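Go through this fold for my students:
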Amino acid sequence: MFEPPMERCPVCGDYVALVQSQGECANSRQCGRAADCPLQTAFAVTDFYRAPARAVRPATP
């Protein structure tokens, strides 16, 4: 079973999953994106699970 990395937020007091972006966390907890988040550098930088797949170009001879 996969358990995402979690950290306790000192602002809201909840445990938050760090595999989301800081913006997603702020939206779900009504912190607001402008809030100074103490966990800002701990969140995922990219959203791997929702990134669109890139088309692969065939190799040119």
